[in-house]
Amino acid sequence: MFGTLLFLHLTGLIIWLGALFAIVVMLFMLRKQLGSQEPNKMAKRIIRSFSMFAHPSAVIVLISGVIMIIQMGMGSGKPIWLNVMEKGGGTIILLALILTGILGSKIKKRLSTAEQPQQVKLSGYLVSLSSMIVLALSVVLIVSLKI
Predict the structure, then answer these.
(1) What domain range is 138 assigned to?
(2) Which end of the chain is less enclosed by CB atoms within 10 A, N or C?
(3) Over the stretch 120-138, which tens digit does the pLDDT of each residue have?
(4) pTM for the predicted model, two decimal places
């Protein structure tokens, strides 16, 4: 059972971070063309399509991680890396789900109503997605090194 959960956890992590990275790269490349109808539609489609992978896989990472922590049953004598994985990883996933969901819907609304290129700013959304990627990878590094 633990092996299956670990597989789900790592697969979900790969899909989640890959989807976030794809959104960042594609929107970064597309940002200069935004303002006309076709690039705006494409940006909305990119956000919607990759969010369909990112959000469910983040939930899978969270649920499988919680179940694995419960199964370990270490109590209060957990090493630091396990505390970082449990508390830091869970917080980052919840924050990412909430933040990317809210900001993604705001960006999609702006892309739907934008008539001039200056009205659509993706920098805040791209920075928040990039920050979530860096934070998640930081947790993976700490857990991998077992600091």
Answers:
(1) 2-145
(2) N
(3) 788 889 999 999 999 999 9
(4) 0.86
DSSP code per residue over 47-116: HHHHHHHHHHHHHHHHHHHHHHHHHH--TT---HHHHIIIIIIHHHHHHHHHHHHHHHHHHHHHHHH--S
pLDDT (tens digit per residue) in 50-100: 999 999 999 999 999 989 888 887 777 778 888 888 888 999 999 999 999
Question: What phi, psi does 76 have (nearest 5°)?
Answer: -90, -10
Which amino acid, one-letter code, is at 71? Q
The two three-digit tokens of residue 9, written as one number: 């956890």
75: left (phi over 0), alpha (psi -120 to 50) or beta: left
Q: What angle do CA 12, 15, 17 make, to 5 degrees?
A: 105
Cα 19–chain centre separation: 7
Residues 103, 131, 55: CA angle, nearest 5 degrees: 50
What's at 121, amino acid-wise?
K
| Tokens 């917080």, residue located | 91
Total structural domains within the chain:
1
Token digits of residue 45: 């489609």
